[in-house]
Amino acid sequence: MLEEKHNIKAWFYLAPAMVLLLVFTFYPIFNAFFLVFLKDYNYLQGTWDGFTLTENFRYVFKNQNFAQAMTNTLLITFVSVPVSVIVALLVSVWLNSIKKLRGTFQTIFFLPYVTNAIAIGMAFAFMFNQNYGLINTFLGWFGINPVNWVGLGASWSNAMFSLLIYTVWLGMAFKIMVFLSGLQSIDKQYYDAARVDSTKRSRIFRKITVPLLSPMIFYITITSFIGAFKAYTEVIGMFGERLGPAGNDRALITVVALVYDALDRSGAPGALSEAAAASIILFGITLVFTLVNMQVSKKRVHY
Amino acid sequence: MKKLFTLILSLTFVFALSACLGGGGREETEVTVLDELPEEDIEIVLWHAFGDDNAALLQDMFDDFEAMYPQVTITQLGQGGYDGLRESTIQAVVSGTTPTMVFGYPDHFVEYLNGNALVPLDDYIEHDDHGIDLDDFVAGFLAENQQYLDGNQYSMPFAKSTEMVVYNKDVMDYHNIDISMTEALTWSDIEEIAETVQGTGDMQCEHLFNADSAANFFIVSSRQWEAGYTNNEGEILIDNPQTREFLNYFNGLFDNDTVSFPIEWDENYGSVPFQDGRVCMSQGSTAGTRHNIPSQADGKFGIFEMGIAPVVQKEDGPDSAMQQGPNVAIMSDATDAERLASWLLIKFMTNTENTSDFAMSTGYVPVRQSAFSTPEYQAFLGIVDKYQAGEELSFDEQDRLPYAMAATVAYAQVEYYAFDPAFVGRVTSSGARREAGLAFEAIYAGTRTVEEAIERMKNQLGG
Amino acid sequence: MTNDTVVYGDEKSNRRKQMIRLGIVYALLVFFALFILIPFYWMIITALKTSTQVFTSPPILWLNPTDWQFSNFALALDAAPFARFMANTVLVSFLSTVGTVITTIFASFAFSRLNFVGRDILFMLLIATMMIPGEMFVITNFLTVVNLGWIQDQTFFDAVLAMSIPFMTSIFYIFFLRQTFKQIPNELYYAAKVDGTKDLQYLWKVMVPIGMPTIITITILNAMGTWNAYIWPRLVTQQESFRLVSNGLRDAFSDIAGVIQYNEQMAAALLVTLPLLVVFLLLKKYIMRGVSRSGIKG
Description:
The complex is a heterotrimer of chains A (303), B (463) and C (298).
Chain A: H1 7-35, H2 55-62, H3 66-97, H4 102-110, H5 117-127, H6 134-140, H7 156-184, H8 188-196, H9 201-229, H10 233-239, H11 255-263, H12 271-297
Helix pairs in contact in A: 2-12, 3-7, 3-9, 3-11, 7-9, 9-12, 11-12
Chain B: H1 2-19, E1 42-48, H2 52-68, E2 72-78, H3 82-95, E3 101-104, H4 106-113, H5 122-125, H6 139-145, E4 156-157, E5 161-168, H7 169-174, H8 187-197, E6 207-211, H9 214-224, H10 241-255, E7 259-260, H11 271-275, E8 279-285, H12 289-292, E9 306-309, E10 321-324, E11 327-330, H13 336-349, H14 352-362, H15 375-388, H16 395-412, E12 417-418, H17 429-445, H18 450-460
Parallel strand pairs in B: 1-2, 1-3, 6-7, 6-8, 10-12
Antiparallel strand pairs in B: 3-11, 4-11, 5-8, 5-9, 5-10
Helix pairs in contact in B: 2-14, 9-17, 15-16, 17-18
Chain C: H1 2-47, H2 51-54, H3 71-79, H4 82-113, H5 119-129, H6 135-147, H7 156-164, H8 171-182, H9 186-194, H10 199-210, H11 212-228, H12 231-236, H13 245-251, H14 262-288
């Protein structure tokens, strides 16, 4: 579709957003890219000891916890995002298909947004408690022994499993809201036509709903993956600064946690550059993945 | 397109250059002590990490000071905890928007010193008119503020806390065990007590002893066992036989449930298990007295009587107890007039009457020796004497009794308070203390052996 | 006739299948709804407990109405100047949301409807900026805000500017709205052009109404962002009275030992987030309103 270029006009429309973005988004990133090549940057004085190409990156790679952080981050990303997108999609479609109580359910699914984060952390700690938690009670009905999910000495796998459920929970409200608003915009005519043809529900879902919703699915998928690579507050929410169950500290450390570790010493020379290096490494990985994701999605997104 | 490209390039250049504009770029602070406080209006901005309760007490002090020096106005701002305080102050140093005075720990102060952001107080301390008699201050508290590598004193102690052991007096009395409020128990004593008190019986506890802070436990034990821990230069010295000795010793006590950490019950503090009878003794901060006061009618022992004792020591080893609590410093961007006003405020806040009052209202320990001997403070401590003599206590005295006991215990240990050296670099003192706590917890949980824990601690602190 | 009988029979079994299917859907929805509700319920019940009840283990899951500690709510309000914080939050939220909505609508229009040099690269660049963790921005942005003069000798006005201006746009929402706008058929645009409609008119008269569910969603989410903002407001405000609701919520409830009074804190949290819930309930139907494309006039 060849259209005339509207360069000047476009920049007028973009100007308000771009001015703010230049100052508050691009400028800090330039700084980060500048910082990462400084040696022994003293943040408090604004001085440094020369330039270096790889030293700050090497510090990050040589960090004791880097391998674990990468593993955890990738696991969280590639498990929690597909699961939460699919669950949210299904819930939205079900919600959209019922008439009674739809409003009530919609309000309920919105509640995580108004629930205090500390309360959420406490509630989940309770749910996963070994002795009286909901999950173990539920498993007990099937004769399964109580599992130590997040308590003293819990294993990495149990703790990770709990974290994944928590992460999925946290992301649901927004995804459901977006999908619902997307579903509402789908012209009823498409569904009516399908009903006249007596099309199977699953076929309607695959051939009508998903393609028509694909712009939103694309948006949610891309932004969710980007967000998941930055996982950190979820781990804090569930385990506190220990980043893992008691006795198994840092079991669930993530790459962003490494950034915070460095920032915790920001008064020390070189710390800020290390934080920048970790951020940039994460950026690189996320970028590569996102480009691949976008390429794969090209054929499946219909506007 | 070419123009656009050039524009972007030059913008990048400008941004990159201005990146250097961050940072205070302060030279070493010059100190000139004014002879007199000028008449002009002086504003003091003070940042702290207290909650609203203590902030209100501070405000009372500030109101009194403003009455004495009408040209001075004091604005206080809480920063939501020590982490927030540190972060805000660092940003302030970098951007040149520092407050006049700041509370904090030496861990933070060494960071600020990397930016020459604190005023050395020695000239003020020794000044003919405005000076202060350091002899009256508790030596250990001063040492914490004098530890900086260049030999200057950059802060003054404001309020201190230490650790104490609360215990279930009903249970101890039942087993005819007498625990002193001034003489510390030893670990051999604890093992002995465990023989009768630990168990599942009606007047027994499943776990005998809880230590709230695994990190403090590690550091204090290091001193008691004369094991290396860290030093001012940031060296990590934990790889030694004495450290292994105490780690193995306590591991044994962990195994028979004699000593635990709050993680045993998925808690952050031992106050809850103490109150409902799952543990009979709990070692924690004197600031936490309020939470240990028995009030769980449904607990194993109902509402029992609480006793307080000093921190447990090692037999035939140096005595040691942890010293914590905020200090106060003056930031170097302040003008000479502001600095003098701040110094006078510090003198005022730490004078005998104020430090004694603040301590009695909060549970902190006064920072001056003379504060312990004021009539009010003596009357306060006297509540304990009356209690021990079996005398009748008024309602007010009953309320204050636990705090009076905590204060007595704190005072009993005052000779051997110690702090851990502050340093910042690829490894920080706060990082070391965090790793110490995590190491002990891992040994407790059984997820790492003593050797593995030491190894991991070294790795994490390898920098 | 035979057809009628067959249709009648099919209808009945169809209706039964429909009932079963509906039943399953409702059951699944209820299951997920319960899963979602648990922490919210936790918040409410904690707000009604006494200080000692908060810490009992196993936790108390149900309180008799007679035991409900409504005093927690009164105490909570006392703990910090919440009225002041709420007012500040509403102001900052309003400013940043208005700013966000306007900048987002314009920028999304450009990305979805206009063709210009570097459009796709710029869009990709914007998405790329989302890949850097937030803390790295805080440091530079604080310096910027200092250089803009909003920190030294800070007035309330300065503080409001510092808290709202950096948040008057969001790539997250530009992306969102761009997707919605891209779904509007080109034919509509061409038809409008033929009619002589200018771009700006088309944007406000056609695209915005169609994209309203998304725009309302963005409004709500942005407002919530301000409600939950903690780190940035704490960093930039130089006086207690300039702060926002989340600062009051997190900072006001711990004593010198650092132990948090959860019951009061949850009571405060409930009171403070009630307005958000109300806003959502009011705007809900605008999000749910579907638009039948064929009904759009040019």
